[in-house]
């Protein structure tokens, strides 16, 4: 697989899909064979980036290839990979509805079947820390825990993870839809009925072992 091309195409997908604005947000993918991590460059237009702009580093953060400065959230991405070995892709987004709850420092509960199947656990908001700091990386890891596939960064955005890039983007989409539905319910004075823990586990098992062809 051409991981550099995957990063470039994913950056365009994130921008065109409304998951971020301008040059904010960042993306990475880990090659499971080499454990090398491919990252978007810092503060560059996603629509103008080429494979020459992708930065490659090891899990210690040592750059092994690339002429650009990597995203300032490199340590956040690497911390996720070090703490969640099953994760192979990380997408840091700045979509509107997810931002609403990140700015309020609130958790997004699992009340939709899609959310139960995809997000892994209720989406927590990490305590505030400055962008690019080790503290932010540490708070992100705490909020993700071992089961959640997404967390919010207070006043900052969302972090979505997956076993591959497609899965990470699926998490990002489901998170944003769930946040939008949650906001609309609350805007009319309502409160969503949360799914039981038993049904959440059933939905997770369904998505993993039964949903789709060949299962």
TrEMBL record:
SMART domains: Aldolase_II. GO terms for cellular component: cytosol. Keywords: Lyase, Metal-binding. GO terms for biological process: pentose catabolic process. Residues 5-183 form the Class II aldolase/adducin N-terminal domain. It comes from the Bacteria. Pfam families: Aldolase_II (PF00596). One of its GO terms (molecular function) is aldehyde-lyase activity. InterPro entries: Aldolase_class_II_sugar_metab, Aldolase_II/adducin_N, Aldolase_II/adducin_N_sf. PANTHER family: 3-OXO-TETRONATE 4-PHOSPHATE DECARBOXYLASE-RELATED (PTHR22789:SF0), FUCULOSE PHOSPHATE ALDOLASE (PTHR22789). This is Aldolase.
